Each structure stands twice: as C-alpha cells, then as structure tokens.
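This part of the workshop introduces the protein records we will be handling. A record pairs a protein's sequence with a compact description of its fold. Backbone structure tokens are a discrete shorthand for how the chain folds in space. The question running through the whole workshop is how a given chain folds. The record below serves as our worked example for the rest of this section.
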Amino acid sequence: MVKSNWKQCRDYTLRHCPSWVTGGGRKSALLYSGKFGELHPLTFDPTKITMRLILEDCHELKGQGMKHGSLNRYISAVSKVLKFSQQMQLISQDWTVPRFIRFSEDEDALERNAFTADELKSMVTFARDSLMHDALADIILFAALTGIRQEKILTLTKDKVDFTNKIITVMKPKKRGQQSRTCGIHDQLIPMLVRRCNEGRTYLFGDDWLNADQLRRHFRKCLRHINRTDGTYTFHGLRHTNGTLLIQSGVNIKDVADHMGHSSTRVTERYLHAADKELAKRVNSIDFAIA
C-alpha cells in the first residue's frame, strides 16, 4: 500500500467525501482542514497525528484568537480526513484514529464581553482613520447597531434590506424552528447600507473578506487599540454590545429578546448584568469618601 501524506489525504477527502463535495460544510472543511497545513508540513505523516499533537495545535490556535467552537471544527476536520482516508485505504488499516478531546462551547458564551459605547466609537474611528480600512469600520458599526451574528452578516444580501420599513431579514437564525427573523435598522446605518446596496455586491459585507478568520485578524488590531486583549473580547462581543446598549437605553427586555432572536428572555438577562456594571461605574464616579 502506498503511504500517503497529509496533503494527499486532505486533497482526496475534499474531492471525494460526499459531505465535503456537495454538502453545506465544504467552505468550513476547506478552512479548518487547511489550518493543519499552516501548523505542520504538508508532507506530515497522518499516522503520526496524536491526541497530544492536536491539543497543542488547539493551544496555539486559541492564542491566535480562536474560540472553542472554532477549535472543535478544526478537530472535526482533522478527524474527518483521517477516518475517510483510512476507509479509502490511503493510510494503514492497522492504525487507530485517535479520539480527540473536545472543548466546551458554553465557555465561549461566558467569555464574550460587551464593549462600551466609547470603546465602540474608538474602534470605528481607529479602523477608518488610522488603519484606513472603511470595510472594517463599517462591519464593526453594523454588527454593534444590529446585533446580527458574524456569519449572518457575511452572507447578507441586498434583497434582505427593506429601507421602506427600516428592517433587515435574517435567514435561518439560530433560534430553533424559525426560518427567518427581522431586526430594525438604526438611522446611522442607512447611508452605509444604501451605498453598499448600490455597489453591485453579491454579499453586502462578505465581499470584503476572504473568510471569517481574516476579519477576526483585522478586528484584533482594534482590540489592541482599546487595550482589550485578555481573550474575553471578540467580534461576537459586538452582538452583546447591541443587547447591552438597548437595555441601557430603557428598551423592554422582551423587545430586546425579540430583536436579538433569543429563544427566551433568560438568554437576554446577561445584558442586564452588563447594564448593572455600568450603573456601578456611574455611582462610583461620585467624588465622596468618609475619612
């Protein structure tokens, strides 16, 4: 039997594995299986891949800003290549594919902090004026003022924008059983959206980026600018920012839940805690002390 290297196994899987050829996961498969080649030589022997090696990969990728959900997709992609290649007899039948450790994605949700209004303004200004990156400034502002998830922003098309009623339709939201949901458009976003709708784009924001990783890399420059680099602030935090700002503006929690597409107000209650922190800051701004 011919001994195949990682590149040969991955290429074969991408060409012949049914779920990667025609399934909706092909884009993710290309992205996450490609990560292995960024960390190791393409000639790497697949049978030398161990649980320890992948755990060390995940540690490095986490240091680059990857969250647990993305790490699990990387693990799944590597595992898929190994299992499919073994089934197709590209690698030894005597070797056992390791059972890799998965990460708790619940921890990701707990680590996504919201930004303050001042931090949001600072990031948008920095992206536009210092980085000279209008696309980055636009998507940051849009994410924070709509609360739409990153993956839905990147696939948004102009037919989903209703300027007459000032609403955006989000297809296949995360809320179970829903085919679509709508959210309002902030007046400040109107000029940006009109411009982008008239530019002949396939995707209003997705055309600016090769993939989500490229967007995250550029966004981290803004995080460094506002000194939010402890790992608990991410692009998804812009969604939390939207919910928090709505709560702080006095919007009813039920209306916020509907706007965010939450399954219940229990999910939305996290924004109440963020609002409480802001109240504490305001109270402590009073110059008062007992000797």
The domain at 6-110 is CATH 1.10.150 (DNA polymerase; domain 1).
